[in-house]
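Sequence of Major facilitator superfamily (MFS) profile domain-containing protein (Acrobeloides nanus).
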Amino acid sequence: MRDNMGIAVVCMVNTTSYTNQVYDNITILKPTFYGGIPTVLFSGYFADKYGPNLVIILGVSFNVLLSFLAPLTAEWDFYAFVFIRFCMGIAAV
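Predicted 3D structure, token representation.
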């Protein structure tokens, strides 16, 4: 998902309004990686406690659900979309 959003952002770049566009593109890409930090810290613990299959199934299911919500939130509010991207980073096991 991280790579797909990067490609989509490149396709959305408008060359006429470059200044705000670059900031928005960076703001869209950063939360996924920031959301991945807590996942790295705690996913091993939860995998030992509950089993790796359950952790992966829950992470992928949550990520799929958020992937369906992402286009809706992108039309609704920019910062809601950034929050969804952060949650997608948390779900990326």
